[in-house]
Design goal:
Strand content: 15-25%
Number of strands: 8
CATH class of the largest domain: Alpha Beta
Structural class: alpha/beta
CATH architecture of the largest domain: 3-Layer(aba) Sandwich
Strand order of the largest sheet: 5-4-1-6-7-8
Helix content: 40-55%
Shape: globular
């Protein structure tokens, strides 16, 4: 099995379970438009994709309304939602192993970079990352996984043949494939085995500790 020297991680659903914070923030935003969500689990579709895409796709908002919804979302998220989550079991042990093995560890998330840094700092995980990259705060540039990966590859001068992506949704698989990078899809996040098989993830694992077997 090929060993990879550059390991690119998604954040939500891969390193942290951010579901509670994201869905609470979305529910808060929707209530501003008179939309009351009884079951917040129905809002888990917002975990991963850019917010503007999600509000427009899942609730039919036009661009102007979606941008207003993002403002409301961040009213809650920046104060409470950002810290309503937890690190998945086995993640810190995995990151320690990767650093000990002298891998270059990079975060590549569609979450705004400023929030990603705050989350990793609060969780005490920033020290394991050589580079942290995320979306721009304006939700207009560097928002999709492909755009974030393009940015990371250029900024870190990555030889894509040495890289591998770790993520929990098809966005991660498609983004990595756009650059010829294989993807490890994790079942403990918000994706499913059916989704991963459909999008032909190169590897599928059910626990964070199993990722080390592929990378080291």
């Amino acid at each position: 099995m090929k060993k990879y020297s550059k390991v690119l991680f998604d954040l939500d659903g891969t390193i942290i379970d951010s579901g509670e914070g994201v869905t609470n923030s979305v529910a808060y935003a929707l209530e501003k438009f008179g939309i009351v969500v009884e079951d917040k689990h129905t809002l888990e579709c917002f975990i991963g994709p850019p917010l503007i895409y999600s509000f427009m796709t899942f609730y039919g908002f036009d661009e102007q309304k979606a941008n207003k919804a993002i403002e409301y979302y961040r009213e809650y998220y920046t104060e409470k939602g950002i810290f309503e989550g937890y690190i998945y079991d086995g993640i810190e042990a995995l990151l320690k192993k990767l650093k000990k093995a002298e891998k270059t560890v990079i975060l590549a998330t569609s979450k705004p970079e400023i929030f990603a840094k705050r989350i990793l700092d609060k969780a005490g995980l920033s020290k394991y990352f050589d580079y942290i990259a995320g979306a721009s705060l304006d939700e207009k540039t560097r928002t999709t996984k492909i755009e974030v990966l393009d940015y990371v590859i250029k900024e870190c001068k990555i030889d894509t043949e040495s890289a591998i992506m770790i993520g929990d949704r098809f966005y991660d698989i498609e983004g990595a494939r756009a650059f010829g990078i294989p993807c490890v899809a994790v079942l403990y996040g918000y994706g499913s085995a059916e989704e991963f098989k459909k999008y032909e993830a190169e590897y599928i694992v059910d626990k964070a500790e199993n990722i080390a077997e592929i990378l080291i």
